[in-house]
Every structure is written in structure tokens, then in C-alpha cells.
Specification:
mainly alpha, 12 helices
């Protein structure tokens, strides 16, 4: 790559990050934060706040669109062609791998902390009641309901979450990742990419998303934990992206994670601990993902610098 091309790519990275972070933080502080106050939550606006947080997932894609238009990059090499041919195994890994790893992490958590498993699913009952429902309203036992939810998330979650996850993945894996891969060795690139992704979540982490509130070091320990989570997940999502030269497998993988990550929480006595498990945001729940990330680093990224 010529020196002028390298400078232009650096400029594009900075413009993309500047736009994406600016609109995300501005929307978070200006729109989401006022609605996330205790008074507004009590007034029934918690659902609206959740919807607005979900809307943030489209902002990286907006950053890509604006950056490509501002820098006249065009959309010829946009990393959105699926490239199915020769990549079916990678697509199967992206589609089903996260669900399997989440279930393994959940099982490991309950093996280590068996007393945390609640066969009566009291936390799920509490969650239903908080949403204005109850176990009696469902035509099946809670244990069956959880199995149905798990199967639905496992088989349909990547598709159901495709649109929202595309908003993030076209930015982080479909745009930022290939440009960083041209500039940095694999390990630093993956670390920096994951930290950027984690810091992008900082505004919503600071209001309790993923890790709650009131924990020691709040909200900085939560933001640091989110960066670690994003590094780990980013390695998996970067692997399926670079293998296929498309962000579509990462979209499916991201959708799979989002759909099933919380399934173990409903089987706990009190929702578990977001820093420990059973969700993959906790260190124990994340162990299968960490192992897979290490394997990918050793056997793929080490030889594809």
C-alpha cells in the first residue's frame, strides 16, 4: 500500500470513529440518560429506554455510511457480500457456535456454584411479574418455557437479531477491522479493536446495562469488564469475518450471542453475578469463549499477521 493510501486509510478510520462515537455519546447523554432516571422508570418508560439503547446498534453503520460518503470511498468493497461458497463451515460456526459456548459456560457455572441453581425458577417468575405477567399466564411450566426460549434463541436468534446486529457489525467488523488489519499485527489489532468496541458501550454500561449499578468501582470496573468482554467476543467475530471476507457471519454470531446470553440467568436464585456468571459477560460463563479465543489466536491469527 502506498504511503498516500495509508494516510487516507488512517484518516478514514479516524473519521469513522469520530462520527460513531460522537453520535453515540450525544444520543446517550442527550436522549437516553434523561429517560433512564428513576422517576421516568417508575412512570413506565423503561421499555422506551430499552428501545433507544437498541437503536444505538445502528450508529456504527451510520458512521460507515457517512465516512464512505465524506471521503468518497464508495461502496465497492463494503464487506457485506456473504461469500457463502467455500465458507459453509465458518457460517455454521458463526450461527451455532455462540449458543453452544453460552450453554457450556452456563453448565460450568452451575457445576461450580450448584447452590445458585433454582429448580423453581424464582428469578424468572420475578422477571415475569415485573413485566406485568406471571407464570400462571403461560400454558406450560416454567421449565418447559425456558427450554422453548433456549431452542428459539439457538435456532432463530441469529436471524431475528440480524438487522440490529448488522448495524454494529458493518461498522466494527465490516469497516474498522479490515482497515486495522492492514496496519497492525494480529494481536495488537484485536486488542485495540475490542477496547474501542468496549468503550463505545461505555455510556450505557454507566447506567447499568450488562453489569448493573452500585458495584465496587462503578462504573469504571464495568466499563473495563465490557472492554474485556468485547475483546474476547471480538476475536471470535473477527475470525469468522476475516475467514470469509464478509461481516455477515459476524452479524449472525453477534445475533446468536445476544439472543441466548441471558438464558442461564433465569435459572438462578437471584440473577447471578454479571462479573462471574452464568452469562458470558462474567468470567466463569465466559470460560468456553476464552478457550476458543485462545485457540483462534494460536492457530489462525498467529499465522495470519
Amino acid at each position: 500500500m502506498k504511503e498516500t493510501d495509508k494516510k487516507l486509510e488512517t484518516k478514514r478510520i479516524l473519521i469513522f470513529l469520530g462520527i460513531t462515537f460522537f453520535i453515540t455519546y450525544a444520543f446517550s447523554f442527550g436522549v437516553i440518560y434523561p429517560l433512564a432516571s428513576t422517576q421516568n422508570v417508575r412512570e413506565g418508560r423503561a421499555v422506551l429506554t430499552t428501545v433507544l439503547i437498541s437503536a444505538l446498534m445502528f450508529f456504527p453503520a451510520i458512521g460507515v455510511l457517512l465516512t464512505r460518503l465524506i471521503t468518497k470511498e464508495g461502496f465497492k468493497n463494503a464487506w457485506i457480500h456473504p461469500h457463502f461458497k467455500g465458507n459453509i463451515k465458518t457460517y455454521l460456526l458463526a450461527y451455532f457456535g455462540p449458543g453452544i459456548l453460552v450453554l457450556l459456560g452456563t453448565a460450568l457455572y452451575f457445576l461450580i456454584f450448584p447452590s445458585h441453581f433454582d429448580p423453581e425458577f424464582g428469578f424468572m417468575q420475578t422477571t415475569l411479574e415485573a413485566a406485568g405477567a406471571s407464570a400462571e399466564m403461560y400454558p406450560m411450566p416454567l421449565s418447559t418455557l425456558i427450554i422453548v426460549q433456549a431452542l428459539t434463541a439457538f435456532f432463530l436468534g441469529p436471524i431475528l437479531n440480524f438487522v440490529t446486529c448488522f448495524g454494529e457489525e458493518w461498522g466494527w467488523r465490516g469497516y474498522l477491522l479490515p482497515k486495522m488489519a492492514e496496519k497492525l499485527p494480529a494481536i495488537p489489532m484485536l486488542l485495540i479493536n475490542g477496547i474501542i468496541w468496549g468503550l463505545w458501550h461505555a455510556p450505557i454500561t454507566a447506567i447499568g446495562h450488562n453489569y448493573g449499578i452500585g458495584y465496587p468501582g462503578f462504573p469504571f470496573t464495568g466499563i473495563a469488564a465490557m472492554c474485556g468482554f468485547c475483546i474476547m467476543m471480538g476475536i471470535f467475530l473477527s475470525y469468522v469475518t476475516l475467514k470469509t471476507k464478509s461481516c455477515i457471519p459476524a452479524v449472525l454470531g453477534h445475533g446468536a450471542i445476544n439472543s441466548i446470553a441471558a438464558i442461564g440467568i433465569y435459572c438462578t436464585v437471584d440473577g447471578g453475578n454479571p462479573f462471574i456468571g452464568p452469562a458470558p459477560s462474567g468470567i466463569v460463563g465466559a470460560i468456553p469463549f476464552i478457550i476458543v479465543a485462545i485457540i483462534m489466536l494460536v492457530f489462525y491469527f498467529r499465522t495470519n499477521k
